[in-house]
């Protein structure tokens, strides 16, 4: 950038861009080349090579992401899980111990419980609400603490400031998945977190057409993660990097609309007689509302809720909707709806899901950028149809 800006809308467009522009191209060209000419690099990882995630398309994203969250460095990866797995394997070794928030995205939970033990890495899950209990789970070999900014799918906001304080007091690396809040609503490194991770598949890209991930943090940590990722091979291809950069340019516009739309939809659902529970930190009734209000500038476009008819009602309701796509993932321009018990958290046993509070009838609703009034009208007709169908089947 010719002139530094603290405004995230400007950073999204201009941070990391090459000046002067390449042959005058306003958009960064796609460098569809796996390898580049040797120019005297003295280290193998310094060679410009697509698997090393250091081509011009990668470098632009690294600079832009680091700027957005005020990090020293950043790294893009082939998926959100590539970012998570590379980060955890980079900071943990055989014999180490990890603390983690008890309710996490299903893929993360499975990696921690099924894969890390094979590397000799143990773990304990902690109750994010019970700060006093964390010390009891701490061990001499504990090295890191992993949490989510807003948990998936229950939309919990744990004591994030306490996590940072606890990690600093006990010399732990603090890691947060900031996918759902996004840099528009929350910059965790400013709070003191060491690493911020993203599934860039979701809000960062925002168009449901790529899979990517990102790690943002201190130079020393990003160097370790880069070294690990280079061996694991989770590199991002040039065309996907181009699409991610293009998608990120509209992030502020999309997220702010989604924040407002989700808030209105959550209020509608909370008042509806067919809805038994709404999970959205923007609601005054949410247990973590005051905490979320103090930390975030917006509450995201994600809502989860349950209907009074349970799993049967949820299935009927989803089938009755006309606008949302019944599909996993979140953060796209189109509204998506899914049942976590059948998709994102299907890898967990039913008993484990029940322990975490993820019922078979829990509905996850990712608000897109459609007109809010249209989405509410669609929800209203689907709820009416669901209630009528259930009442009719009860009478029969």
Features:
396 residues; Aspartate Aminotransferase, domain 1; 12 strands; globular; 5-stranded mixed β-sheet; 15 helices; Aspartate Aminotransferase, domain 2; alpha/beta
Can you give a write-up of this model?
The chain has helices spanning 8-14, 56-68, 80-91, 106-115, 134-137, 160-169, 182-185, 188-191, 219-232, 238-248, 251-271, 289-295, 310-320, 350-356, 372-395, and strands at residues 73-77, 97-101, 122-126, 142-148, 173-177, 195-199, 213-217, 275-279, 302-307, 325-326, 336-338, 363-366. The strands form two sheets. Strands 1-7-6-5-4-2-3 form a seven-stranded mixed β-sheet, sandwiched between helices. With 396 residues, the chain is of the alpha/beta class. Helix 4 links the parallel strand 2 (97-101) and strand 3. It starts with 7 loop residues before the first helix and ends with a helix. 48% of the residues are buried. The chain contains 15 helices and twelve strands. The protein has two domains: 8-248, Type I PLP-dependent aspartate aminotransferase-like (Major domain) (Aspartate Aminotransferase, domain 2), CATH 3.40.640.10; 251-395, Aspartate Aminotransferase, domain 1 (Alpha-Beta Complex).
């Amino acid at each position: 950038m010719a002139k530094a800006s603290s405004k995230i809308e400007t950073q999204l467009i201009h941070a990391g861009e090459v000046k002067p522009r390449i042959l005058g191209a306003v958009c960064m060209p796609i460098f569809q080349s796996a390898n580049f000419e040797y120019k005297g690099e003295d280290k193998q990882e310094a060679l410009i090579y697509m698997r090393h995630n250091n081509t011009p398309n990668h470098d632009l994203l690294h600079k832009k992401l680091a700027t957005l969250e005020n990090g020293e460095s950043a790294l893009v990866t082939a998926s959100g899980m590539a970012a998570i797995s590379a980060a955890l394997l980079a900071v943990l070794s055989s014999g180490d111990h990890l603390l983690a928030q008890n309710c996490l995205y299903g893929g993360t939970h499975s990696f921690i419980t099924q894969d890390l033990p094979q590397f000799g890495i143990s773990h304990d899950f902690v109750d994010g609400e019970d700060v006093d209990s964390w010390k009891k789970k701490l061990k001499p070999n504990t090295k890191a603490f992993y949490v989510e900014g807003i948990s998936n799918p229950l939309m919990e906001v744990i004591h994030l400031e306490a996590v940072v304080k606890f990690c600093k007091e006990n010399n732990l690396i603090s890691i947060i998945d900031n996918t759902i809040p996004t840099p528009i609503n929350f910059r965790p490194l400013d709070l003191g977190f060491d690493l911020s991770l993203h599934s860039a598949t979701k809000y960062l890209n925002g168009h449901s057409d790529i899979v990517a991930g990102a790690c943002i943090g201190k130079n020393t940590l990003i160097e370790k993660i880069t070294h690990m990722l280079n061996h694991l091979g989770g590199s991002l291809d040039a065309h996907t990097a181009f699409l991610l950069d293009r998608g990120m340019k509209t992030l502020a516009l999309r997220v702010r609309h989604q924040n407002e739309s989700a808030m209105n939809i959550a209020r509608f659902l909370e008042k509806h007689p067919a809805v038994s529970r709404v999970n959205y930190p923007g609601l005054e009734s949410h247990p973590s509302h005051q905490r979320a209000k103090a930390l975030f500038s917006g509450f995201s476009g994600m809502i989860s809720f349950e209907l009074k008819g349970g799993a049967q009602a949820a299935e009927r309701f989803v089938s009755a909707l006309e606008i949302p796509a019944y599909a996993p993932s979140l953060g796209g321009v189109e509204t998506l709806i899914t049942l976590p018990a059948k998709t994102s958290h299907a890898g967990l046993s039913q008993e484990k899901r029940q322990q975490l509070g993820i019922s078979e009838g829990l509905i996850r609703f990712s608000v897109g950028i459609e007109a809010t009034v249209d989405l509410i009208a669609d929800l209203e007709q689907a709820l009416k149809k669901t209630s009528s169908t259930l009442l009719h089947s009860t009478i029969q």
